[in-house]
């Protein structure tokens, strides 16, 4: 990789050291600028929401994964809307995440006349709905993830995915996830199913961890995806004997002091929730994109040199809803949506 090395040395707990490049400072500047956009939008402030020209012009995910539009929809309208028993929460979560597309979920709800349920699941009926949708506009899956087709022999990927989901349910995956001893255990259960590689199994584990089915810290375990690995490559000189997960863990642990070092203001989620491992992983992925413009002299494995998607300001209200177990106190004047109802003694949650 070309480019100068930062003169600083970061000492890890293992005794190994990291040599940051100038891109590492941009990692924190990007995180601050992207969170500034989010916070100002949530407060209803008019644009412009940032002075960073790259963040203002291009589309990036939020600093916190749970704040992204699709994650918000998943949490509020998939996980916490409907029956809360283990099988049904697992079923809805995986069904949504297989496609990871809000319009596909809405189409399914419309065609079924209500929320999908495992109790009434019919793989063939669901597949016919998706067949018709493909013939209409051809798009079922989000472009955010590459979703390999499970090897069950069907010509159409969604039919293979319906068979995969049915296998997981009948195989007792929900109960095994609910009984897992750690977030890594959840990951390994999911990783054992065909077509779910390291990245997807980790992402799905995080999604299930938003629910009440399991309750593990997002600081317990992380898997670096391809974009994050490129971001790490741009932020640091090669560190022999240090894994990407160890780098992410170290970076998450020094976030406050790095923001202070650079004189950056970073508004934590709900005022107190720091960046978690999954958020720092995502930020490396977004920094990979940011650096294509800010630091074109640093190259990643993908070889990409531009950011495809442009940012378009949307001044619509941005209410927020987070897992109640996080205990995030956020004031919001909009009416409470359908889904979980506040009960006596429950934390007042989660709107912004």
Describe this entry's structure for a reader.
It is a single chain. The chain is mainly α and 352 residues long. 46% of the residues lie in helices and 1% in strands. It has 14 helices and two strands, in the order ββαααααααααααααα. The termini are far apart.
SSE diagram, text form:
Blueprint: E1 10-11, E2 17-18, H1 22-42, H2 53-57, H3 69-79, H4 86-99, H5 102-112, H6 123-136, H7 157-170, H8 173-178, H9 183-191, H10 198-209, H11 226-235, H12 244-253, H13 255-261, H14 277-294
Instruction: Please work out how many helical segments DSSP would assign.
Output: 14
Assess the beta-strand content as a share of residues.
Answer: under 5%
* Helix-strand category: mainly alpha
Mean pLDDT: 90
What integer value in Å does the Rg equal?
21 Å
Low-confidence stretches: 332-352
The counted number of beta strands is: 2
In N-to-C order, the SSE pattern is EEHHHHHHHHHHHHHH
Strands of the largest sheet, in order across it? 1-2
Helix content: 40-55%
**Quaternary structure of the protein:** single chain
Distance between the termini: 42 Å
Give the biggest beta sheet.
Answer: 2 strands, antiparallel
General shape = globular
């Amino acid at each position: 990789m070309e480019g100068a090395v930062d003169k600083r040395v970061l000492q890890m707990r293992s005794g190994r050291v990291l040599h940051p490049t100038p891109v590492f400072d941009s990692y924190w500047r990007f995180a601050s600028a992207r969170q500034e956009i989010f916070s100002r939008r949530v407060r209803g402030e008019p644009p412009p929401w940032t002075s960073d020209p790259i963040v203002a012009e291009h589309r990036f995910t939020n600093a916190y994964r749970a704040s992204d539009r699709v994650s918000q929809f998943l949490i509020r309208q998939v996980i916490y809307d409907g029956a809360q028993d283990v099988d049904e929460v697992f079923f809805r979560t995986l069904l949504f995440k297989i496609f990871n597309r809000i319009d596909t979920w809405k189409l399914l709800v419309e065609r079924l006349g209500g929320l999908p349920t495992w109790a009434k699941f019919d793989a063939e009926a669901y597949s016919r709905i998706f067949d018709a949708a493909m013939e209409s506009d051809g798009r079922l899956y989000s472009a955010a993830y590459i979703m390999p087709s499970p090897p069950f022999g069907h010509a159409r990927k969604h039919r293979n995915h319906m068979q995969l989901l049915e296998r997981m349910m009948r195989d007792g995956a929900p109960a095994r996830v609910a009984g897992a001893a750690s977030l890594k255990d959840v990951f390994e259960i999911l990783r054992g199913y065909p077509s779910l590689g390291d990245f997807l199994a980790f992402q799905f584990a995080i999604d299930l961890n938003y629910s009440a089915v399991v309750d593990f810290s997002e600081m317990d375990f992380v898997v670096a995806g391809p974009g994050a690995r490129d971001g790490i490559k741009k932020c640091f000189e090669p560190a022999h004997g240090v894994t990407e997960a160890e780098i992410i863990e170290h970076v998450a642990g020094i976030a406050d002091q790095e923001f202070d070092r650079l004189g950056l203001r970073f508004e934590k989620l709900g005022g107190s929730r720091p960046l978690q491992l999954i958020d720092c992983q995502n930020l490396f992925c977004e920094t990979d994109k940011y650096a294509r413009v800010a630091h074109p002299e640093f190259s990643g494995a993908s070889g990409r040199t531009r950011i495809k998607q442009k940012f378009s300001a949307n001044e619509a209200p941005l209410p927020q809803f987070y897992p109640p177990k996080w205990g995030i106190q956020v004031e919001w004047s909009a009416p409470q949506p359908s889904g979980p109802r506040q009960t006596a003694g429950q934390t007042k949650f989660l709107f912004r």
